Amino acid sequence: MTRAPIIAPYGAWESPVDARTAASHDGRPEFPAFVGDEVWWTEPRPAEGGRRALVRRRADGTAGSPLPAPWNVRTRVIEYGGRAWAGTARPGTGPLIVFSHFPDQRLYAYEPDAEGAVPRPLTPLSPVGDGLRWADPQIHPDRGEVWCVLEEFTGEGPSDVRRVAAAVPLDGSAAEDRTAVRELSDDSHDFVTSPRLSPDGRQAVWIAWDHPRMPWDGTELKLAAVGPDGTFGAARTILGGPAESVAQAEWTPDGTLVAATDRDGWWNLHRVDPATGEAVNLRPAQEEFAGPGWQMGARWFAPLASGTLAVLHGKGGQRLGILDPATGESADVPGPWSEWTAALSTQGTRVVAVAASARSSFEVLELDTCTGRTRVIGAAHHDIVPPEFLPDPVERIFTGPGGREIHAQLYPPANPYFAAPEGELPPYVVWVHGGPTSRAPLVLDLEIAYFTSRGIGVVEVNHGGSTGYGRAYRERLREQWGVVDVQDCAAVARALAEEGTADGRRLAIRGGSAGGWTSAASLTGTDVYACGVVKFPLLDLTGWAEGGETHDFESRYLDSLIGPYTEVPERYRDRSPVTRADRLTVPFLLLQGLEDVICRPVQCERFLERIKGRGVPHAYLTFEGEGHGFRREDTMITCLEAELSLYGQVFGFTPPAVPALELTK
Which of 29, 373, 500, 651 suits 55 as a labelling partner, its CA being 20 to 30 A distant? Predict the structure, then answer.
C-alpha cells in the first residue's frame, strides 16, 4: 500500500540524510596505483581528524589500512598538494612504499611486509617550519632513488620558495643530510611538476611555468638528456609557452612522448618529437583530454602495454576511454559513471581509476581492457541512504548576458514521504565551485542530498571561467572575476524563478574559497539573494595583491582574473566585498578555518569590522585545526546544521532536530 505523503513546507521535511551521515562520507579516494598485483590508494578519514589513510588492496581482494593514525599521507606542495605516495613491488620481499607525512612533510619509506615494519624517514626535517615538502614521487629501484618535486622555503615570506625536480636516496642517507638530495633541474622556473624518465633512461621531461601565469594559462614542456651518472644536461623547451598550457606528458613503453596541450583551444593529446618539438594531434576534438593543474601528479591519460592509451575525455564531465594513437580511434568504457578524476594508473592490460555517478559517490574502479569488465574494488558508498531520498540531477544550459551559454546542474527536492502545500515553490541555493578555474562535477554528493531531501533545491553553476568547455569558455573570466561569475549565477537564479522552478523570494547563494568570493560579491553586488553562506573566502583583493595574504602558488593569480595590480588598483578596490560591505543587507553565515594560509582569517575579520553596527544579521564560525577546506567530521556537521538553520530563519520554516544558529547584528 502506498503511503500518502505528509504535507509540510519545503525545508521542514524529515530526512534520513543527517549531517553526520553527510560528513562521514565527505571526500573521495585519491591517486590509486598498482604495486605489483595489488592496488593502493589514499582515502579520507573525517572521523579521525580529517587525516588521509593509505589503503592496501591485496591480490586476493582483501583491503585495509596498514598505517594507523596518526600517519597522514598528504603533501602541502603548492598548498593544494597532489600525489603523495608511490609504490613498487619487490619479488620475495614485498612492496616498498614511499609517502609524504602531512604533519612534518618528510618523505618516508615503508615496507609493510617486513617484520616490525615502521616507516623510516628518507628526507630531513626542515630548518624552516615544514619548509621542505615533496610531491609526486616516482620510485626508480634500479637507481636507488625516488624522483619527486621538491618545494623548499628559504625564508619567512610566502614567496620565499624554490622548486626543483629532485632525486632522494632510498637508503635513507638524506634523512639527516639535505646535501644528499640530488637536484635534477635548476630553479630557473617558479614551478615544476611531473619529472618523467624515458624508458631507455637517456632523457627526462618535466613541466615548468612562471609567475604571473597559472598552469592553465601557459606552461613549458622541458627536456634534458640524462647522463650515465644520473645528472641532467642542459634543459630546453620543446612544447608550450605563455599562451599554451601543457597539462601532462608521459613516455609510452616504446619511447614515444605524448603530451596534453591546448594549443588548438582544447586540451588534446599530441605525439611530440623530442628532437624537434613537432606535435601531432592524435585525435582532434572539441573535448578536454586534461584539466587544470591544481595538484601535482594529476594524470588524465596513462599508457598501456599494448601501445594504446587509457584516456579521460569529454565536454564538461569526462569519461574513460581507450585511444589507439596509431589510428586516433577510441572506445569508451561502458558504465554509469559520469565523472572520473585525474588519477589514472595502468599495469599491463589493467587500468585503475576513481569515478562517480549521479547515484554513486567516488569509488575505486578497475578495468580489464582485455575483457572490457569494470568493477568496483574500493571505497564504495552505496546504499548509505535509501535511493528515493537522492535527487535526480539534470544538466541545463542557461542564457546569460549577451546570449552566452551558462552550464549548470539542477538538483530538485526529493523525498517520497513529504510534499509541499499546494502552490508553494521550493527555495533554491546556488552553489558556486572553488577555483574559480575549476568545475562542479555531476555526482552524488550527500551534502547536496542533505538539503534536497529536506525540500531545498540546489543548482550548481559552472559559470564562465569554468573548465571542461575549452579555453575560450575558460578565458571568459580573464580580468572579469567578480563580474562574469556573479552575472552568470544571478542569471541562472533568475531563470529558475521566472520559469516557476524556484521561489524567487527564497534564493540563496553559497560557496567556498573562490566560490566564497563569488558568493560574497553576489551578496554585495546584486539583489537576487535572500541570504548567503560564505566559506573560507577571498574578500579583499588588495590584501592578496600587496599584503601577502595568501600563498605563493596563487600570489599572482589575480593578474589574469582582475588585471595587473599596478595598472588597475581601483579595480581591486571596487570589486572587493570588503569595500562594498555597506551594500550588504541580507543575513549571511561566514565559516573560516583558523589554519588557512590560502584565504586567511584576517580577511573575514576585516569584512566583519566593516559591517559592525549596521544591523545585518550574521554568524561567524571559526574552527581550530582546519585549513583551506574542512576535513574534520565535527566541523562539517556544525557547518551543515548552521547552514540549514540559517535557511530556516530566512525562508520561514523550522528544520527538525537542528540546533538554532544564533545570528547577531
Answer: 373
